[in-house]
Specification:
It is a single chain. The chain is mostly helical and 167 residues long. The protein has one domain. Helix 2 runs antiparallel to helix 3 and helix 6 crosses helix 8.
Length: 167
């Protein structure tokens, strides 16, 4: 029963990271650190083997390097870069390309939605909400952690984590 709780770490952490990014424009380090530590605890229960483990670590290193590059270019926030790498650790090389494509699609939809929101008058029920006001500002950033989380939650059922318990 303990194993089942471990496999909830990824979806819970990704949902929390996406919501934190929406409401605060930050992804706390403790979330990404929790994902990395959670992977270390959960990996033995997934039956990955040495080659599978190496695949997941390679995905982490690759996405960390890409995330650092995107951050250095000013195209990505630091929390986004760390979340991308931590998510790749759970996803592995096998599904990494699909994750990146899904993230791009979700990110494009997110950007379009926020740009449309910035062109309209905010609904009355959002007035006074700090996060909604911040999103409405034209000079504001885009909480890309939402796209990272959405893509991660979409692809997670296809990963070895849940395939281990497929009947």
């Amino acid at each position: 029963m303990f194993e089942f709780a471990l496999f909830l770490i990824f979806p819970a952490a990704m949902a929390l990271a996406g919501s934190m990014d929406l409401f605060t424009m930050t992804i706390p380090n403790r979330i990404t650190l929790g994902l990395v530590l959670g992977f270390a605890v959960a990996a033995p229960f997934a039956g990955l083997g040495w080659w599978g483990l190496a695949s997941h670590i390679a995905a982490f290193v690759l996405m960390l390097a890409i995330g650092i590059f995107l951050f250095a270019m000013g195209w990505f926030g630091g929390g986004d870069a760390k979340l991308l790498a931590a998510a790749a650790l759970w996803i592995g090389l096998e599904r990494l390309f699909e994750y990146v494509i899904l993230t791009s699609i979700a990110g494009g939809a997110l950007v379009l939605a926020i740009l449309m929101y910035r062109e309209m008058t905010p609904p009355v029920w959002l007035c006074g909400q700090e996060w909604a006001t911040r999103l409405h500002k034209r000079a504001g950033g885009i909480p890309y952690g939402i796209a990272l989380a959405a893509a991660g939650l979409w692809i997670y059922p296809k990963t070895p984590w849940l395939q281990t318990f497929a009947v």
